[in-house]
Amino acid sequence: MRRLLLIVAALNAAGLACFYATQHPHDPSAGGQHLALVDSSYMLDSVGFTLMLPGIFFAAIAFLCARALTWSDEAARAAWYATGFALNMIIAWRIGDTLTAPRT
Predict the structure, then answer these.
(1) What confidence score (pLDDT) does residue 38 get?
(2) Residue 47 and residue 18 in contact, taking contact as beta carbons nearer than 8 Å
(3) Sign of the CA dihedral 76, 81, 82, 88?
(4) Cα-flanking dihedrals φ and ψ of residue 34, to 5°?
(5) Among 15, 79, 83, 25, which Cα is nearest to 45's?
(6) Which residues make beta-bridge pairs with 26?
(7) Distance between CA 70 and CA 63 in Å, rounded?
(8) Whole-prediction pTM value?
(9) What is the maximum span of the chain, computed from C-alpha positions, in angstroms?
(10) How far is Cα 84 from Cα 29, in angstroms, rounded to an integer?
(11) Per the CB 3.0–4.6 Å rule, which of 27, 69, 83, 94 could disulfide with 59?
């Protein structure tokens, strides 16, 4: 079961890396323009979303609640990603428990 949790955590971490790789930091020398870290942010967003399924789908309510509370976009996304990560770990734990339970 520990291996399953590590695999799920690694996939979620890769998904988070894909999400955050699409962020555009400010470069003060570029006059406030955004610099893209990647050429295809839509593709990385899709890969990140897929790697974090199903938790990220169900965690969308956390994003909506954070936006309703007028949190900043960065804070709302952080809450969404963290909730999705936690949900995936809970799902993996429950599946692992079911698979390793003794059969009667």
Answers:
(1) 47
(2) yes
(3) positive
(4) -85, 140
(5) 15
(6) 34
(7) 11
(8) 0.74
(9) 68
(10) 36
(11) 83
CA distance 77 to 33: 22
Tell me how many degrees the CA angle 84-5-61 measures, rounded to the nearest 5: 10
Q: What is the mean pLDDT of residues 91-96?
A: 91
Q: Three-state SS across 15-63?
A: HHHHHHHCCCCECHHHCCCECCCCCCHHHHHHHHHHHCCCHHHHCHHHH
- For residue 44, what pLDDT is reported? 79
Q: Residue written as tokens 């988070």?
A: 16
Average pLDDT value for residue range 82-89:
94
